[in-house]
Amino acid sequence: MSLRTRIALTFLLLLTAVLVAALSAVSIANRRNAERDVERQLEFGAQTFSGLLKSNRRLLTQAAQAVTNDYGFRGAVAEHDTATLVSALENGGARVGAAMVVLTSLDGQVIAASGSHVLAGSKFPIAALQRRDAPGDGIANVMVDNGKIYQLVGVTVRSPLPVAWIAMGFELDGAAAQGLADVTGLGVTLSVRSGDGAKDVVSAAGASHGSSGGGRSASGRGDTGGTGGDIVTRTIKLPSLDDTQVYATLSRSLADARAPFEGLTTMLFRIAGVSLIGFGWAAFWIARNITRPLNELTQSVNKIRGGVYDVKLTLQRRDELGVLAEGLQLMQTAVMSRDHSIRRLAYEDALTGLMNRTAFSANLSRLLTDAQGSPIGVAIINLNRFRRINEHLGYTVGDAVLTKTAARLAAVPSVNSAVARLAADQFAAFTRLRDRADLQAWGTSLLIALSEPVSVEAQPIDISATIGLAVSFGAAPLADDLLRCADLALEQARREKRPIATYDEALNHTARDQLSLLGELRHALDHDELRLFFQPKIEMATGRVAGAEVLLRWQHPTRGLLSPAAFVPFAEQTGFIRVMTRWVLDRAIAQAAEWHRAGRSLPLAVNVSAEDVGDARLDARVAGLLARHQLPPSLLTLELTESGFIEDPNRALSMLDALAALGINISIDDFGTGYSSLSLLARMPAHELKIDRSFVQGLESDAEYAAIVKSAVDMGHSLGLKVVAEGIETEISAQRLRVLGCDIAQGYFYAKPMPCEQLQIWLEGRARVPVIAIPVDFQVDEQTDSVTLATY
Fold it and tell me: 167, 263, 510, 745: least buried by Cβ within 10 Å?
């Protein structure tokens, strides 16, 4: 139901309720007034009837006394002159119009009569008339004679003593009843009730008279009233000379009494109906005028709710609706401004003005849909060491670097506006390629755009990036899948320390397997599925065992024995590597302590990651394990890669100093691959330097690797460090490292990593054989430190 209809109906219902209440009150009042009017009319009729009877009584009494006072009449009574008496009675009755004149003896014997069926000599109830005809203005007695009703008075005839009685009366006939009805407006009925029943003798209708048949009469002396149906009656009992009961019934119709009021009520109802029709039309007109501007405002609100904010409000009023329209217009402007801001926050990077991840994914999805099979290249670009820019130069400079980087990427012709900032130092771009082979060239163009230093406040800042590339193939893939592939390529480039890498299908399976394995690592720790393997380290000068490196393996229940490369990298990324390192340190120190107590001390080297060095309680944990297992600190070596302290060198050096203070040996692992500075290397509390296997395995094929190894050996010796070479797989490589002055060797040539039980067997069965020298196939120039391959 519309607002206009509700307003109009509300007004109509209120008016209807008021009219119904008013008309009901008027109708009830009219009914009560009609009933009171009938009661008053009946009361007046009863008084009038009583007054009429009293008047008749006085008139009859006077007429009868006039007859008795006549001397001739008294003489005729004395002489019993019947003819004279009848004549006198007729003349006396004629003077007042009496219908019955009877002369009786003192004992009630009729002497003469006029106008009556009473016969001379008959008995007349004069005694009853004498008893009931008390002096005063009371109602005279009535008598029924031959079906007629007479009102009688009795007067004594004296001469001078009482000698006779005269009874004179009027007939209460239809004329008398009609006269009373005409005066009172009531219906008048005279009825006689005897043992045989009741009989209406006289009946007359007034001006507003209904049938008295429904009326109710009452017996007994006095006046009674009653209602029967629509008729209201008042019954008057008249005193009778015999046993016959005579009643006068006055009646009035309520319907006739209410007729004038009903007419007024009908008129009021008609006026109410016309008022309702007129008021209804007015209410709907007013409601339409009220709701029409509201409808306009509602339509505008619906458009604004649907996202259309340029709706013009033409409502110009000075009332409350005008204020509402003005407020709505202000709200519309505010909503439009907020919507614009929200859209910017939802789809635009606030710092660089580029697309954010949501907008980039949506635009990439549209391009993939519209590409129609054309290859789409996606690149995820990560700025290297951006965290250090924020830490050392401040966030303001970092924001400026990001802004200028975004501008450079957007300026690449093949990118245009299809570039976004995904995270703090991570960007993304996509482009339509002519051929999938163009992906590498496009990625290279992005690297070139970021190759030049960025100038911030006249200060040049070198930046570099790592890029992961992916290209769509076959049916249009989902944008999220293509971004995930590019992200996997970025992670591969990071692991392999390459500036750019392209997604390969094998990466997806590898990543999925590694993620699955990562989810099972905690279960592996709780259920003792991890194993410690040991690879011996040999002194190259003496050939004796100098110690062993602890290597971790995972005995997977379904995939078999897994190497650290299958799960350690992702454990490092998630931080779970710290839990694994604690487990390895606890087991390795316990095993070393057991060998030490058995008199077969063997130094063990345990690898720790950059995450472990970042643990502020690493030194306390190691000290606690050494104390708990009673292992001398000199029998424990912690191997740390160079990359482990490049990100935060001061913090790493502080931790290394604390560990060295415990008496633990510190080894720099994978030396030559971390790009650490020499000044940083000199500050490290290290005891040995471990040359990466990639340099060792290149000794047999490339003289440049020999020069690098010799430089590393000389550098380590100059810093007072022992030099360890790992990855030795052939006797030739071992002999060449011995010539170059390497101190300790490790590799498959001597022994593969083995469980604890096999290591013990290997140590017990190792033959003490002298080192066999083989012809040297390269020469070292002591003066120039150059290495050349010999020719055979």
Answer: 263
Intervals of CATH 3.30.450.20 along the chain: 4-176
249 close to 191: Cβ distance less than 8 angstroms: yes
The angle, 0 to 180 degrees and rounded to 10, between the axes of the packed helices 357-370 and 320-347 is 80
To the question of domain 357-503 being in CATH 3.40.190.10, the answer is no
Q: From CA 336, how far away is CA 340, in angstroms rounded?
A: 6
The CATH superfamily assigned to 522-789 is EAL domain (3.20.20.450)
387-414 per-position pLDDT tens digit: 888 888 888 888 999 999 999 888 887 6
Q: Give start-end residues of each CATH 3.30.70.270 domain in the chain.
A: 357-503
CA angle 75, 77, 82 (to 5 degrees): 110
Mean pLDDT over residues 546-575, rounded? 84
Alpha-carbon span 734 to 749, nearest angstrom: 8
- Please confirm whether the linkage preceding 160 is cis (ω < 30° from 0): yes
Q: Where in the chain is the domain with CATH 3.20.20.450?
A: 522-789
Query: Which residue type is seen at 234?
Result: R
Strand residue runs (E) in 358-456: 376-383, 419-421, 426-432, 454-456
- Residue by residue, DSSP assigns 558-569 as TTEEE-GGGTHH
- Residue 232's contacts (CB-CB under 8 Å, 6 or more residues apart) are 35, 38, 39, 42, 215, 225, 226, 251, 252, 253, 254
Closest CA to 135 of 66, 54, 73: 54
On whether the CB atoms of residues 778 and 790 are closer than 8 A, the answer is: yes
Give the Cα separation of 764 and 492 in Å (integer): 43
- pLDDT category at 546 given cuts 50, 70, 90 is very high
What does the pLDDT look like over 20-42, one tens digit per residue? Answer: 888 888 888 888 888 888 888 88
What whole-number percentage of the chain has pLDDT above 70?
A: 85
The residues, any chain, with a CB within 8 Å of residue 233's CB and separated by 6 or more, are 42, 212, 215, 216, 217, 225, 226, 227, 249, 250, 251, 252
Class of the CATH-defined domain 4-176: alpha beta
Looking at residue 619, its pLDDT comes to: 92
DSSP assignment string, 335-359: HHHHHHHHHHHHHB-TTT--B-HHH
98's tokens: 């009496």
Q: Report pLDDT for 753.
A: 95
Whole-number Å distance between alpha carbons of 688 and 668 = 6
**Mean local confidence (pLDDT), 433-437:** 83
User: Which of the four pLDDT bands, split at 50, 70 and 90, describes residue 679?
Assistant: low
**pLDDT-based confidence at residue 220 (cuts at 50, 70, 90):** very low
| 638-667 confidence digits (pLDDT tens) | 998 766 555 667 788 888 899 999 999 999
